[in-house]
User: Fold this.
Amino acid sequence: MTLALCATAHGQPAASCVNKFVGTWIHHGIVGQTNTANLQPDGRALCSDNKNCVEGTWTCSGNVLNYDNGMYKTDYTLQADGTMTARDGIVVTRVGPAPKLSAPREPAGSNTTAACGGLLAQEKQDNGIKGGNVHERSYVVCQKFENKCGYPVSFAVKSNKVRIKLSATVQPGKMEKICATSETETLQYLGWKQTL
Assistant:
């Protein structure tokens, strides 16, 4: 078997681990077989240097790359030294540094869901003062953001009252919001990114 992957109907590898595996790898397989695999962020790869390599797909979870070529599946475990190992003494080494991949980012002011970060519509929140039986109403705008990614992200807004950018970290599967401090303050959504 050789590690070689290519486009077929498959799911995209998890964003939380894809950066560990994307790039070019030399596969040192069983009985001395070798080939070069170029792992793509969407689960595709190019195979070269061996006319017998069988192309397939890959996904990942944590430090384990799951390879499937349609005939058999193999798990490759990323080691502390940066190599991957698999059954029967298979060793896979990276060629060059891992590429730097950035998280997807929504355009400024967008109210749509791009990739896995979900911008929710701005809402008004009662920020009034309560004292005894008296409630002084004061409504401020809040920008809500839902994280549908499998990793922490941060989103940012710009206020018309302060010169600094305001941001909040959102854990996977959670929702956070940034609220204005006064009724006259407005918030402009700037985008989101993965936090490391």
User: Anything to note?
Assistant: Helices lie at 15-21. The radius of gyration is 23 Å. The CA atoms of residues 18 and 41 lie 6 Å apart.
